UniProtKB/TrEMBL annotation:
Name of the molecule in the record: Membrane protein
Natural source organism: Streptomyces eurocidicus (Streptoverticillium eurocidicus)
Start and end residues of each HTH cro/C1-type domain: 9-64
Entry keyword set: Membrane, Transmembrane, Transmembrane helix
Keyword Oxidoreductase: no
Keyword Chaperone recorded: no
Amino acid sequence: MASEFSTLLRRLRHNAEMTQETLAERAGVGVRTIRGLETGERADPRVTTVRLLADALGLKPAEREELLAAAVRRAGPADPPDEPAGLPDEPADRVEPAPGQPPSVWHDALADVAGQLAHAVAARWQREEEQRQVHDPYPLPVRWRPAPEELTDHWANIRRLPAGGTHGPLDLGGRLDEIACVYRRIPSGRLVVLGRPGSGKTILTMRFVLDYLKSRARAEPVPVIFTIGAWDPTALTFRDWLTAQLTRDHPGLAAPGPGGPSLAAALVESGRILPVLDGFDEIAGGLNRPALEALNATTLPLLLTSRPAEYAAAVAETDVLTSAAAVDLSDLTLGDLTDYLPRTTRKARGGDPATTAWDPVLSELGERPHGPGGAHLAAVLTTPLMVTLARAVYSDTPGRDPASLLDSGRFTGPEELEDHLLDNFVAAAYRSRPEPLPAGGSRRDLDPERARYWLGYLAHHLSRLDTPNLEWWRFGSGLRRSTRTLVLAMVICLTIGFVDGLVGTLFDALGFQVADGLVVGLLAGVTLGIAYWFLVAAKDTAVPPSNVGVRVFRRAGAGKIGRGAATRFLFGSLFGLVFGYGYGFIHGVITGFLRGFGLPTALRIALDDGLLFGVVFAVGAGPALALLVLLQTPLDIRSAVNPVSLLRTNRRTSVAQFAVWAVVFGLLVGVGSWLAIRPMSMLVGPFVWNLRSSLKLGVISGLGGALGYVLGLTAWGQWLVFARIWLPLTGRLPWATVAFLEDAYQRGVLRQAGAVYQFRHARLQEHLARTYRAPRAPRAPREPTGPGGAGPAR
């Protein structure tokens, strides 16, 4: 049914002598959007969209105000919207289509990409919700009330009213299963959810994403959860950070996109991503204010969660989140506990089957809520987190009596009770369980104390990095920069030295190869360690996981790929020249002394060999590095990433890079050395060289160079050096690190957030880190190699 807005828009278009197609093209929205607005099928246009239409129509000020007023009246509460308010009919923050590409094709392509992303996001969080047993036996009730007015923007701004418009607050009350509907009532599309630790903010974001996606229309943005605690607003703009997070969790979105450097960037810039920002309170100290200012500099719709105190402090320093409504999560009631806890435990054997171990505890809380034991326990069991921990420790663990929680002599306050539940949660999670895993197979038994120590180190590692994200490629970042560099140099030294000595015995005597292996290993360790220091450690960063694969048969693109290949070519040639000259010089000195020459002759041989090897290695390293760039290919956009799959993908990419580097670099060095002997002999004098020497140099250089590249300059190589060698060797992690992390996830101690792990809750992370740092923290136990360990290495 046509509305006042529909009739007015159609009349103004006719006055401007435009077709629907012309107006759509000038305004940058879809033709279907224009058609829907004029027929009344699209009932609730966004104010930004109306302004785009007014600009395209060239309206006078009076006509603009009339059109905006009609749109606002159409979106009023007396006329329920057919589409969600506050969301773009077509993206308002848009980028231009690629040259020569029709706008409709460009928008359809992005809509298809957004649809694939929506499916991946829904599948991911559905699995995560099941893993956390949110629906067993039913979700704990999460309710909210309006937040204090000083934490909420003006309601005229929230309602997107024109100048002079006034209106009262919106009714935003609801329960967990209504969060998507409540959000859709907000014309600005901006909502802040406040709640104290453990109040259910993260579970609410998961439910919001799943419910929103169920009713999402093709033109609407895709809600994606981002852990905002990892964002540094002083280093990255908000949109760039969103793009980086999307690319990390969905590597396929790194593929080139229409009108932008990548599909992820195109989705963000075109307004097809609805950021769900979890954990504003977890942003590093001192960055809450600049983070809030950066969010206010954008007009993107979003949902933000935070603890009240941290958000209020940021608001006091700057301003509220512009155009955002705010709600405050409520505590659980005794009635909620009475309904929930008895249904989480087994029925009593004998006697009344309806009686459970929780009944005496709940009766005490109801009859004597201010008693010495009941008051402390009642204060603790007001958040879903603590109720879930209590369930894990007492309902899911046989032989535990929850009545002990009422012992006021043992627990003198709520803090002691919370520490008790956090402490015992790990023990309960790692108790022996004969039942099979959901995915098949049996659960490996692991000593709770050993698991607590390793988890404590991981929590301490995250505290040092000031992030909630446990990223496998940053396991070495918790170490001092000097330690990281020395460890990497030592591993490279031993690895390349061993390969040189072993393979070289096929060509020369054992004694010579032992000396050559020592020299090559030491030189490789020093040079690659220096390169690692300047490229990675000095910047206090980590090598990020690759978001591309390697395909041998593909056509190299131009532009960015070509520039990247040129940069790698120059860097590789320079590094090859330095390393080659150093290796050649030492090789010449050793050769001279082994053959009985004096020092002057040995030095002359060293200078000549340095020049030869420097040129040959430069000719090999530059093209090899450039070829790796040219052979890169985007990953499958449909792939949903978790930490293990991302690790495996990067392992495959690193193996492919190793193969390409070994073959290309080895061939170029071997053939290049054979071809360079004649002109070099004419330039500096004769060389003792033959085809066997070229073959040996090519084979050893190919293998050693590939190993150095993979270990020093790939994310998987960093994982191998630190998480699979150094940290287990020093007792801080188990040898089977991946198996341990996946097991912790299956037990509910860790959770997955895209391509990273996180602790189940920030409170658990803080508790484990504090326990690890305490003087009474146990020493790292020795890990048995038998069946009782964490399982085979992966």
